[in-house]
Amino acid sequence: MKKYNEDLNTTLTFVGLEACNGGMTLMLKTGRLFSAVISTFIAQVQPELQPDPNDETVTLLRVLIHKIDNTTFGDAPALPQLTGPPRAIVQVRCLFYASLAASIFSAFLVVLGKQWLNRYASVICESQPLNAARLCNGSWTGSFCGTSTM
Fold first, then answer.
1. pLDDT tens across 45-102, in order?
2. Does the chain have fewer CB atoms within 10 Å around its N or its C terminus?
3. CA count, 13 A, side-chain hemisphere, 136
4. Contact 60, 81 (CB under 8 A)
C-alpha cells in the first residue's frame, strides 16, 4: 500500500506540474500578444505628441508677406506659441506605457515561475529515480525531467 501511495503522489505531482507549466505557457503567449498590440498603439499615438509643422509654416509665411507688404494683413501676425500636446493624449500615452510595463513584468514573473517548476521537477526526478523513470519515459511533453520547452 505504501508503494502505491508513493506512485500516486508522484503521478499527481507531475500532473499538477504539467498543468501549471501549460497554464504559464499560455500566459506567456498572451502576454507577448498584448505587448505587441500595446506597442502598436504607442507607435500610433506618437505623431499626436508633435506640434503641427504646417501651422508654424503658414504663420511664418504670413510674417514674411507682412514684412514685404504691410497692407496685406493689417496687423503683424503673431508667432505660434507651443502649448504642448493635448492633456488627454498624454494621459492615454501614460496608460499605454504603464500597461506595457505591467505586461513585461508579468511575463518576467511567468518565466521565473517556469524556471522554478522545471527546477522543482528535476529535483523530484533526482530524488525518486524509479518513479521518475516511469513517469518521464517519453509520455510527458518534454517540459520536465531535464528538458525545457521555453
1. 888 888 887 888 888 888 888 888 776 666 777 777 778 888 898 999 999 999 999 9
2. N
3. 24
4. no
Terminal-to-terminal C-alpha distance of the chain: 38
**The dihedral of CA 26, 116, 16, 142: what is its sign?**
positive
Total domains in the fold of the chain: 1
Find the domain containing 100 and state its range: 2-50+85-135
The set of cell numbers assigned to 134 is: 516511469
State the Cα–Cα distance between residues 99 and 139, nearest whole angstrom: 39
Q: Quick count: other Cβ atoms within 10 Å of Cβ 79?
A: 11
Q: Is residue 140 part of a domain?
A: no
Look at residue 133 and give its three-state secondary structure.
Answer: helix
Within a domain: 74:
no
